[in-house]
């Protein structure tokens, strides 16, 4: 058997038809497509959004050749080794519960996606994840916190946001793109079959998005803020932020505010920083 046949056995394809049956028509999700190979699902879905795609479109790739992370970083992983997908949300359009969500609240969307993913992974795979603000999913492997997933939220048009989620599922140590990365398998996940993992994450995402919208985007009203704070590895830690203009801010991360910004308590008092700023976590201890 050739190596590629081995990896086929190891990493079966997603079952697009079954995923579609399970997901489309359930609350929020209006379409689901699996593509074999593309640059970035975030870029592709943004193009579809510009063409008028409805809220709730889901685009999944078996392989990405130009996966993107926050702050212009790359996201790379071997074909079928994880879940690489994007969803289209339209918080700027009126919804079931009334008017659009005010734009200043949209900073919560990547954090919401982190909470939804962490909740689902804990429930279905028994993996405990911590959230590194704003949107890294950390797992603990041999006592060290390592990144098993990331979220990239990008505005599209006036009313839309594409939320991209990357989760390392079956990557082995030798395949990790950076030594600080990890996978669910390395963290001892009980489930590494990507179909049920994806279904669980999408179900959880729909539930959290629904309650956030029902609360008009106020994270305090929808349990989101307290759930995020409880699962956030950044809070209580020493951080260093690089702000626009080359300024630096060091202090303790004390809260995440109503707009999703990290509040840092430093020598000059408390200051919120946004997801566009670079925040480094100082090692624990
Ligand atoms: N599959 C992947 N899994 C984890 N990280 C990945 C993956 N692909 C690319 N990366 C990139 O590797 C880097 C590692 O993430 P990590 O959070 O450790 O670094 P960082 O954000 O630069 O750290 P810090 O902000 O604490 O200085 C990130 O830039 C991330 O985008
Ligand atoms: O770590 C980060 O900064 C975010 C990584 C986000 C990766 C996902 S994979 C699916 C979607 N498409 C992309 O190009 N990026 C996101």
TrEMBL record:
GO MF entry, a single one: biotin--[biotin carboxyl-carrier protein] ligase activity
Domain BPL/LPL catalytic per the UniProt entry, residue ranges: 13-213
Annotated EC: 6.3.4.15
Flavoprotein as UniProt keyword: no
Entry superkingdom: Bacteria
Keyword Ligase carried by entry: yes
Pfam families (UniProt xref): BPL_C, BPL_LplA_LipB
Record keywords: Biotin, Ligase
First and last residue of the signal peptide: none
Top-level class of the enzyme under EC nomenclature: ligase
PANTHER family in the cross-refs: BIOTIN PROTEIN LIGASE (PTHR12835), BIOTIN--PROTEIN LIGASE (PTHR12835:SF5)
Annotated protein name in UniProt: biotin--[biotin carboxyl-carrier protein] ligase
